[in-house]
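Onboarding guide, step 5: your first structure request.
Type a short instruction followed by the sequence, for example:

Predict the 3D structure of this protein.
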Amino acid sequence: MISAHQKTVMKASRTRSQERILSLLKTIKLGISAQDMYVELRSRNQSMGLATVYRSLEALKLEGMVQMRTLPNGEALYSLAQQDKHHLTCLACGTSIPINQCPAHDLEVELQTDHKFKIFYHTLEFFGLCSQCQLAQTAQLSQ
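The system replies with structure tokens like these:
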């Protein structure tokens, strides 16, 4: 178990790369891929290697500062771990619709208490077809 002192030391010992990534994520409201983050940092003259971006993201994820969401195409999107994220995601076109209600909130509280487990965030995602892709599929089947 990590003590409060160790957490303070961990936060104080963040690398410059980790701080740059946190700063970037604070300015971006949507999730961003590591590759896009790498390009964006280069455009801001804060260049670092792509491997460094991935290492920094992993360290920040383990600290509970960053969360990762994997899209149906396998791409990982990163964002600040400030709030839980919930989505409806279309498997055909990749459209992702945010859901603003959280049916798992009470369960999260219960799990933290019952298992003495510190939850940083959770994700909930439903996969299917959006209305446009349903129409396209129906039209294709009727041909």
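Each response can be followed by summary notes, for example: Residues 50-62 form the longest helix (13 residues).
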